[in-house]
Amino acid sequence: MPEPPHADSRSDAELIRTNRGFYESLWAQAKLIAPERFNTWSLLHELADAAPRRLEVAPGLRPRLPLRGTCFVDLSHAALRRLHASGAGAVHGMIGALPCADASFDLVCALDILEHVADDDGALAELARVAAPGASVLLSVPLHPAAWTAFDDFVGHCRRYEPAQIAARLARHGFVIERSAVYGMQPKSSRLLELGQWYLTHRRERAMWWYNRVFMPLGLRFQKPLRWRDGLGDTDGVDELLLRCRYHPVATPSH
Question: Is pLDDT above 80 for 64?
Fold first, then answer.
């Protein structure tokens, strides 16, 4: 099935402007949520213990790796200020041009980011560049272009992936999917999403009060444990996947 006409049609500059406008405002009024409050913590804490060189890209105020000892890269100055205040090492940057040396990390986490950039191949190439051979790489991706909603547009998404498409794209850059789990805290109700979108647009201060004090705490409390399966698993009806990958450098052809 073809992707919606708006997916992959916006320029990088347009996407950056949309994302910066939405998330800079969001993070300026949101609270930092400690990584141990998310259902990813048991896995990522274990992986982090074995990987002192670790990177998380675009965490905003929802970091998943330990605050101490992780290098965080984010576009939002509001998020960077809050991360610094919490003792985290964070630098300004984008996934398409990471301010990091080659092969410098044994654990890389980039959640909820590939769908926000026009050049996802370039973003994956950058993640491959900074990952050491054998590194663990955690990615999340929204699935099924046919499931596109107005909320995808609102939060600055560029695309959703067909399962086979994301698997092939990752393999092209040396990322092998080892395991996956159904992921995401987005409400199932389209009516609730539309209501939240309206309030964020027209009554942002009130919307942020409810987000910080009601919806985010409830979402955290009712998170389901991640159920891991080999490879991609069954993706029918799955809105978003968390992918645990292993990085193996792809040999470049000699001339």
Answer: yes
